[in-house]
Model the fold of this input.
Amino acid sequence: MNDPWLTVPGEQPPGAATGTLAVCFAPTGAHGSTFASWRGPTPEDTTLALVVPPGRGTRVDEEPVTDMAAYADAVAAAVRELRGGRRLVLIGVSLGALLAYETCRRLLDTGVPVARLCAVAGQCPGDFHGRGEDVTVEDARAFVAGTGLTDPELLADPEFEEVLLPPVIADLRLAAGYDGRRGAVPQVELRAVWATDDPHVPEVTVRRWAEWTRGECTLMSVEGGHYAHQENPAAVIDACLDGLPGTRPSRRSVLGAGATAVASTVLGLGAVASAAPAARAAAPMGGISFDGDPTDPVALAVAMIRQNTSNPSDGAITLPLARMLQGIFRAAGVATETVPTPKDGNVHFFARIPGSGPATKKPLVLLGHSDVVPAMGDRWETDPFAGEIKDGKLYGRGSLDMKGVNAAFVAAVLRHVREGAAFDRDIVFWSDCDEEQGPYGVRWFLTEHPGKVAAGAVITEGGWVLNQRDGTTPMIASLTCNDKRSLLLRLETASYATHTSKPFSGQAVIRLGEVLDRLGEWRAHIRPNALSRQYFAELAEATTDRPFAEALREMLAARTDLRRDRAGEAVVRLSETPELHNAMLRTTLAFTSAQSGYYPSIVPGTATAEFRAAFLPGADDPGRIVAELRSLIGNRATLSVVGNPGESEQQALDRLRGYLATPDSDYDTDVFRAWQSAVRRTHPGVRATACQFEAVTSAVPFREQNVPVYGMYPFTVNRDMLKRMHGTDEHIGVEALRQGTETVYQLLAELRTRA
Done:
């Protein structure tokens, strides 16, 4: 007869009605005894329940479970039986973090609340892709030796090895067959804990857990190595259980046990010296109020940045920000509406100021997006979600893309409302929830709610205001009338897998690197389309840099690829924003990910990388570029087009060609002229021109309906700001934001009804 999956050490009553039940998942090859040192420092009202899987401990004679789903199902069933009325916390160490995560999914799916999920020194689900490679005894030996799971002398003892290695092999097989990308990301508070001296799972790896919850995620650090839960149990317990309502500390002082100071941050933050502002401690679905001046764009931008709307790829949780915006607009007497999507907490927000002009004028939509990309990876100098102002710059994720623009929209609109203005059409502020990634963005909304907005024109993110070479004198302002479109491509190299003791030439990872080097040196021809030609012609007149102006004119006058490429390269080289202008002139490649390997003692047999090719409308044909890249890499790698599910390569290419054929937005409109007039008021003498945007926005579904869409970042930017878009230490200038808001205000002033 099989033993229970959970054991409760000590004299603890099962099914208690109060307190906390902390279910602990052991690391690879271990079982409940790894938490033996936890009983002393555990809070008085907390019961430890230790997971005891088959094949180890008291269940050593049973067959191990090597399927993650079966493992999690069994533990979830045991937890439901044991929990009673207690608050539930799941704590997983190393591999145990994945087991805790999958168990959490199952408990939530069956209506069992999980107060907190804790991942200690563990890789996140996205690091596992379920390839199911076989695991050998040699692999297990290498793992045990490499992680310091036991003393090397004990490992050399055949009898000890016979006991130790089978559970390690079972767990390694369990991990090898696990694909963490399957299933919905749960709504749960998550603590991700890294050990300061852990050589196997460093901070950057633990930080990726932020993408695997739709709730609040807090990153914490403790002193110790990979097995800090044994070396420094009090600190790990404190990191996992601290802050739970009603939890009483143990009789043994945590500080006396040597716990280190813990730097906590919310979803995706960089390392900071202090905790995040209290405003961000609100429950993920709660939202916060705004008590500042709603016509102050800087205060608004700070408040928006502090609402963490990171989009893990399937849509952001935007309801708290929507509630804050709802309070701001309703206080000004403006009607609002929040439209939910099928994903919990993922909403579109609308505020509408009714027009008083002729009914023939359709609404102007100020389209922003409330979601932001995660603040993961490189270390930030500031807290990405604190909205810190330093040296005249506002730092934070979304400050540039695009909460700063949203703040300018809201502040400008509400300034008109405060003045009692009337417009010749409805003015609609729309905050989209899924612009960065996710299925429920603008296209979904226009399909599911046709006619609800009925836009006559749309202004969203897009063109830039650039300075002269002196860095302070405004030179040119652009309003974008079309977007580039991109195609996701995948590379794969293959050789064969083997033991790391027998490396060979032509390893898959090396071959992938060689192919990436070759692709990184590739350059498409310079092919400015009509919008780009108009912009660069205006730029040649606007710049005070004579060599730059001459290169621009030579490029525009060129009639052969050779002369145009040569002049275009000079334009890029002489530009103060070379990356921006390069993207406006040609097809570009951006490399986004590379993956290979799954075990430290195995040379992998395959390696993959993904990159995006971005195309200018009216320039290169995507099919021709794919063929050219395949010719370039030859048989060194396989290049494939990544389309939508079920799409063939040809279908994906044809869909992209359709997007690229969407006509430019007409700039012979009153909205475009209102923008030009606004620029003349706020930037006297600066040229205001139509332009091609170098990125992708939510404009295409509108343009497909012949609705003109214009893009603007109304504040001045420089190269450093542009490079930090979607990057580390994203920021905008405080005074530039105020001036950009004035431009939006003046644009709307052109649409006011005249007395």
Remarks:
- The chain has a mean pLDDT of 87.
- The radius of gyration is 29 Å.
- The first helix runs from residue 68 to 83.
